[in-house]
Amino acid sequence: MRKLRTIEMNRLTLDEFKEAEKLPLIVVLDDVRSLHNVGSVFRSCDAFRVEAVYLCGITATPPNAEIHKTALGGEDSVEWKYFKNTEDAIVDLHQRNCFVYAVEQVEGSTKLQHFTPDVAVERYAVVFGNEVKGVKQSVVDLSDGCLEIPQFGTKHSLNVSVTAGIVVWEFARKLLL
């Protein structure tokens, strides 16, 4: 086996990315503190052509050198919008006919492997929470459902950017492939 060179990967240019059909998914970051996590989420969203990222509350916004360090330009390709309150973002998403899932461990959550997209839903949104407190209860209450990644070790959570990568991949796998 030989590693491919970047030129052999046929990646989209920034202009081609902006014009390309997007995964009908909006990623919402609810008070995410780490700029590296924010950048990493942008990079994953670029990889799977996510429609947009909503940055809420204390979540930092581009342009920012620390976000860029992990986003590597993903913050330039993926559309983003800032909301002072995550609850306002959820209201906006519902007005845009999005089905909103909070990614959180709650009673009655849907395990990610059991998630099946509904053909009647045109667009989804997934909310990822703060590194310590997770998704705020008020945001969970406004969501249409909750997704949960099963875990089998001693820790009760995954890093928010790792969680986002897993969930976004699952949506891409089920909606695009």
Task: Detail the poorly predicted runs.
Answer: none
Largest sheet: 7 strands, parallel
What count of helical segments does DSSP give?
7
Q: What's the shape?
A: globular
Order of helices and strands: HEHEHHEHEEEHEH
How many strands?
7
Give me the secondary-structure category: alpha/beta
Mean pLDDT: 97
Distance between the termini: 25 Å
Q: Percent of residues in helical segments?
A: 25-40%
Strand content range: 15-25%
Précis, in short:
With 177 residues, the protein is α/β, with parallel strands linked by helices. It is built from seven helices and seven strands, in the order H-E-H-E-H-H-E-H-E-E-E-H-E-H. Helix 2 runs parallel beside helix 3 and helix 2 (35-47) packs parallel to helix 7.
Written overview of the protein:
The model has no long low-confidence stretch (mean pLDDT 97). The protein contains seven helices and seven strands. A seven-stranded parallel β-sheet has the order 3-2-1-6-4-7-5, with helices on both faces. It starts with 13 loop residues before the first helix and ends with a helix. It is α/β, with parallel strands linked by helices and 177 residues long. The chain is globular and about 45 Å long. The chain has helices spanning 14-19, 35-47, 65-71, 74-77, 86-95, 137-142, 160-175, and strands at residues 23-30, 50-56, 79-83, 98-103, 110-111, 123-128, 145-148.
